[in-house]
Model the fold of this input.
Amino acid sequence: MLRLIAKSTHRLLRVMDRPVPTPFDGRPRGVALMLALVTLAILSTAVVEFAYTARVNTAMSTNERDKLKSYYLAKSGVNLSRLLLSLQYALQDESRQTDDETGRMIGRAMRRSNFQLYQYMDILLGPFNSGKVEIPLASIDLSSMGVSGFGEFTGTFDVDVVPEEGRINLNQFAGEELNEGDLLMLCSMMLDSRYDSIFEVKDVNGDTMNRARMMERIIDFVDLDQEQVTLGDDCTIRGSGGDEQRVYERDEAKVEPRNARLTHLEDIHRVMGVSEAFMEVFGDAFTVYDVDRPNPNVASFPVFYAILCQNLELEGVDSGGQGLGSLCANNPQVGLQVMYFAMALDGVRAFFENPLSMFMAYVGSSESRLLPGAEVGQPVAFLRRSQLPEYIEGFKTNPQLMAQFINYSPAYQVMAMENPQLVVDPLVPAFPQWAVSFNRSGLLRSISTSQSSIYRIKSTGTYGSSKAEIEAVVDFGKTQRRLPDERLFEALQGEEDDEEANEEVEELRSALKSSREEMAKGRVLYWRVQ
Done:
């Protein structure tokens, strides 16, 4: 019985162990091929990913290299500009102490002519890019003298240098009291009726930003108190009261009035109601640095308009810096005539800013003076303050001369495109019968033609596809590093009978004075990289 069970079990196991027949018996199954294809696909993906990553890393490294080189090209432009501007002061001031007669002669010539190196910065820095001095009239290759520019270094930089002295300092309102003369200058700059559209917009709170309200917001943002100032449409102070923070309470940005001096011009964008349209028109007329009175050699049209409105005279009545300035806004005839004179002065400034146009005018004319009241071969627009009223009188008596310079004004060129009816024919100008005049002494008090000390330098470096921009503000009236203030020594001064302590203080004071005299000028007040 047991043998029978064992044989049956053996047969069953043999049946179960027998392979099951399939339709593919006797044919190749292709498993190796599938494994090879899958392996090949995986390896191909890995290789492609590796190649893509390598290419991206190479591109990133190239861009980073170009970015770094373009940054240092832009920085080189700033440093070379600072070097040339320092040369201006060395030629004008330090040449007084030199024993070299040629040096003294060059210094005297520069002081008398008010020659400005910054106007020729693009020509002077050109050899660093190409090894050539290039102007539209000619090109001088300096390679024979060993000058090759950057050689195989294909990068370039462009520099634009402008003094800050032609602008209105907004920090003059960051004081204990509001000066009505400063207020009138700010107000007069905005009076031109062409700007009406800027002052018809509403802020985020729905308040219409007219001229008076705009000035109130700017003044309240920088003044030291927390009370809201109220101004009239005639540029007068009506009073103060209320919380200046109230207009910002509904703003989601949670901006608060600074109530202190502005450190950068960009801070004005935080003022409630200041729009991009406002800054596009007036941004170049503002500064936050301690400049002197506006310099007409670098002033823009709004600043000229403000100066003329501030010193307006009618029928022999002196404005005295008070009420008559509002006539620029309230009387269209007065405003139009003041605008013509401001554009003519702006055209004079623009004409002399271009060395090529000035050179061609002297070469192509038998006249050695380009304007009545100008000096022979004068290289700048306003050599002295008295030339401002002299130019105005010359324009009154010579309409063709006035029309000629009006056409150089950038403000007029924009206005002529927007309002063709205001186009001035340079051959047969149709100016109105002049009813306005300007107080001469007031004009002289309102401007300064002294050597600028604060410059805004914009340098752009380009290498490959990368571009870097650096904007810097440099004050050549201050040492490169901050030094202790003289008031510190007053605090350290001991009692009169403490001679030993006082001698130490005097030694420190003398050492500081010596360090200040030896240290190079040109402190960087602002530095921004884009």
